[in-house]
Amino acid sequence: MWCELVSTVKKLVTEQDSLNYCQELGLIAKSVKCPTCKCDLNKVYRIQKRAGRRETHKFQCNKLKCCGKHNQVPVRKGVWLEESKLSLRKNLLLIYSFVHTKLPTTTKFSTTTQLKPGDEKVV
Q1: Which of 30, 95, 113, 114 holds its CA 20 to 30 A away from the CA of 65?
Q2: pLDDT tens digits along 24-62
Q3: Per the confidence metrics, is the pTM higher than 0.85?
Q4: How far does Cα 58 stand from its chain's mean position?
Q5: Would you list the domain boundaries of the chain?
Q6: Closest residue by Cα to residue 82 from 11, 22, 13
Q7: How wide is the angle at C-alpha 77 spanned by C-alphas 71 and 22, nearest 5°?
């Protein structure tokens, strides 16, 4: 397990690496349609947020008729990671750890006893 974890961590050095890995696995789309002109958007742009905020990755339409209309589509749109505040890298490591951790199981013991003919049941 640890060798696999180390191998996975090495693949996810940067947020861009994590994005590429998610796209390879099919967790995040490789392209989306522009909301305005409906063309395929397949280039991801890194958008730096204000200080203290995490950077985001978005598909963006650069056609002249779409410029200025903020036609950006977040790469996480429509997937279960959409509302997560964690980086893609941290999400992937969290998921990996959860899936590969053996959770304690509870065992229910049956307390039935078999009575032989002539035995009385004590209540």
Answers
A1: 30
A2: 888 888 988 888 888 888 888 887 766 655 667 888 888
A3: no
A4: 16
A5: 29-92
A6: 22
A7: 115
Residue 46, C-beta contacts closer than 8 angstroms, at least 6 positions apart:
15, 16, 55, 56, 57
- CA-CA distances (angstroms) from residue 27 to 19, 23, 48, 76, 92? 9, 6, 23, 9, 10
Tokens of 120: 């009385």
**Which run of H or E residues covers position 56?**
strand 56-60
Residue 58 parent element (H or E): strand 56-60
| DSSP line for 3-17 | HHHHHHHHHTSSHHH
| Residues in the chain, overall count | 123
